[in-house]
Specification:
This protein is an alpha+beta fold. The protein has three helices and five strands; from the N terminus they run ββααββαβ. The chain is elongated, with a radius of gyration of 19 Å.
Length: about 130
């Protein structure tokens, strides 16, 4: 199992900031990356996304350039969840399932979601159900 966990180093001890899900006495290998240092990702431009606008513009770009032409007809109405750092993606009728599968491969993913073939991901509004 490979995963990323935030931790704090103080007084010579590295302390996880979230549950690890390990059995007592389990041995692990720890890889360190200074959270202040530069991000390490296949696409450095994507890894620099710092606000929602960056995520949206990069997500749209990846979808239009890499995904749309392959899925627009066959997966209409399904969700495409895209990791803008790796440009990897998952497609599923369930947003939650697509997100979970992508997170299993990329725990630190920064994601953009699009509903394939639609101008919006979700709809909100009032239905009258035939009332006049």
């Amino acid at each position: 199992m490979k995963s990323s966990v935030r931790a704090r180093y103080a007084n010579g001890v590295l302390t996880p900031l979230e549950p690890l899900g390990l059995e007592e006495g389990a041995e692990v290998t720890v890889s360190l990356q200074d959270s202040i240092g530069e991000a390490s990702a296949p696409n450095q431009e994507s890894a620099s996304a710092t606000n929602d606008g960056d995520v949206v513009s990069q997500g749209k770009s990846i979808y239009d350039r890499k995904i749309r032409h392959d899925v627009e007809e066959s997966s209409r109405g399904e969700f495409a969840v895209i990791d803008i750092n790796t440009e990897d993606y998952e497609i599923d009728p369930s947003h939650a399932i697509a997100s979970r599968r992508l997170a299993e491969r990329h725990p630190d993913a920064i994601t953009y979601t699009v509903r394939i073939g639609s101008r919006t991901t979700y709809r909100a509004g009032l239905r009258t159900w035939g009332l006049s």
